[in-house]
Amino acid sequence: MSWNKYYRITPLRVINLAVALSAVLVVVGFVSLCMGPANIHVKQVLLLFSDSGSIDQTTWMILFKIRLPRILLAGVVGFSLSIGGVVFQALLRNPLAEPFILGVSSGSAVGAIAAIFLGLSIDLGVPFLSFMGALFTIFLVMGIGRRQGGLESSTLLLTGVIVNAFFTAIIMFFISTTSDTRLHSILFWLYGDLSQSRYSQLSISFPIIIVVSAIVYVFSRHLNLLVGGEDSALQMGVDVELVKWLLFLGISLITGIAISFSGIIGFVGLIVPHLMRMFIGPDHRLLIPASALGGASFMIAADTLARTIISPSELPVGVVTAFLGAPFFIYLLKQRGSRWIQN
Amino acid sequence: MDPELKLNNVSFKYGQDWCIQDLGFELRKGEIIGVIGPNGSGKSTLLKIIDGVLRAQKGDVLLGGKSLYGFKRSEIARHIAMVPQESAFSFPFSAFDVVLMGRFPYSGHFPFEKKEDIQIARESMELTSTIDLAMRSIHELSGGEKQRVLIARALTQRAKIILLDEPTSFLDIRHKLEIFEIISSLTHSMGLIIVSHDISLAAQFCHRVILLNKGKIYKIGTPSEVVTAENIGEVYQCPVLVDENPVSNTPRITILSRKSNGKKESL
Question: Global pTM?
Fold first, then answer.
């Protein structure tokens, strides 16, 4: 029956999409591995996969000690922030919601900086306090901006601006008053930077991100219903409070981890889900995997641009995403802003 | 046989003051009950209590003889469906996606629909003549089309009770009539409760009418028992004339102006 073919979202369709986007991700990752100030030819990189040994020590160091960890981390950060964007947009019923715009990213950065001050471990303690910072900010934003039925665009944006200003001031204060080398730069936290990436950061966080993403995915159909309103979702059988807080907890965890690695990178969670929605529609069963994998590719591409465009110097990757994201945000606001305010 | 739905002395308050007080009635299979009353009389609150979005502090809501509060959320959704006054989707789901969402309470933890779900959604769209709108985005639909899609979603829930919260308030007369006609065609297998501001239409299509005043039932009965000039005038604090609709023989109201007998000053 043709209706089934066209309208039914099946696990097979989701898998096909995921495989296709994973292929894109691998290609983007490979291209990124070949690009950089030290000119390493594609053939040399390809040789690694066929029969190694013929590669010199320096090239090996550049590829596997400098570029690859950075590519992997960029992927993980883009993956997490994009899922964060999708889930925020559904739960707050507002297409402009995103970790950075809501102030969640800066709240989480404050947590990470506090952890560094306290001398906690970079691989565990810092991501943990970063997560607590994200969670705290979500409660704060919900507390300030809550109206019946959801967050209005104007309230949401205003709340985000204020929360951001406040946390940014705290970050500036911390960094300006310390000579601690571990807080190596203000730019790192305020504009996002992946140049300090190390494999060890992935060891604990990667499994957590995978598990949390899987849990978020289980609730993808619940998210579809929540887009039509909390009361309406409840009436169709969604346990709204449970789903909401579980998901807020989950995305605080993964965006918190991402921010603790990369600093504040804005707009990824806005651009990627909207681009994906244009191609595959608003159903979260497709949108979540598409945004996660697309977000990873997007972030790797943005970071590759950041480290090559003014080579041999580097830009913070947040500059690249903001450069693309801010005009996109204005476009969204202008084009359909008024419709989203109705509630 | 137990009635589909029974309310036993239900009381509810948001803060200090009771907004629903000692309210009780039954809904039987095949029946349409219209709920009328002034703004703030508790009509929408009543619907939210019936489907468990709000929990009554006193009294009980019985579904097929069992307390609503013993049911899981998805079980309630299999018994009761709600058609809201308006529905704002923040993203452009297609009409078919929206209707298919009604299958959610049957799906368990597996987040995908079965073939049978597609079939049920299609049938519901055929019943509400929305099948041609299936591929359109919910954002592009007119008020009347959207309401019919939401009714199709409620049908897809395969519930025995459908609650409608002012489903026609934003519609013109043709689309109002369409909605009421669809509603009255559904009664063979279910019970319906419809909150409406349109007293005459409610009287025309409902078997019984509840007139609410300040959270209490002022009067319950057949349309001609409830919709009288005295009852309506007293509860709405507005003078009305009630006569008989010459076609359906149901009560029909005319609002009277306190000035100039409602006649326009001639120019």
Answer: 0.90
